[in-house]
Amino acid sequence: MPSILADAAPPPEYMGLGLAAVCVCLLAAVAAVVLVVVLVKRSRK
Q1: Quick one: pLDDT at residue 6?
Q2: Residue 8 and residue 1: Cα distance in Å, rounded?
Q3: Distances (CA, A) of 40 to 1, 32, 33, 43
Q4: Measured between alpha carbons, how far is 45 from 33 in angstroms, rounded to an integer?
Q5: CA angle 29-27-36, nearest 5°?
Q6: Distance between CA atoms of residues 45 and 41, nearest Å
Q7: What is the DSSP string of 10-40?
Q8: Each residue of 3-19: b (16+ CB within 10 Å) or e?
Q9: pLDDT digit string, tens, across residues 1-43
Q10: pTM above 0.70?
């Protein structure tokens, strides 16, 4: 890993916001997958 990226690492506050954003994105992706599965199951009945 280049030292340039290590020097440009964001402060812990921004790391926490980044983790929260990743969690929100993962939850949205899971919700979208569940929604698609439910719609497909309903359309097959």
Answers
A1: 59
A2: 12
A3: 44, 12, 11, 5
A4: 19
A5: 40
A6: 7
A7: PPHHHHHHHHHHHHHHHHHHHHHHHHHHHHH
A8: eeeeeeeeeeeeeeeee
A9: 455 555 666 676 777 788 888 889 999 999 999 999 999 999 9
A10: no
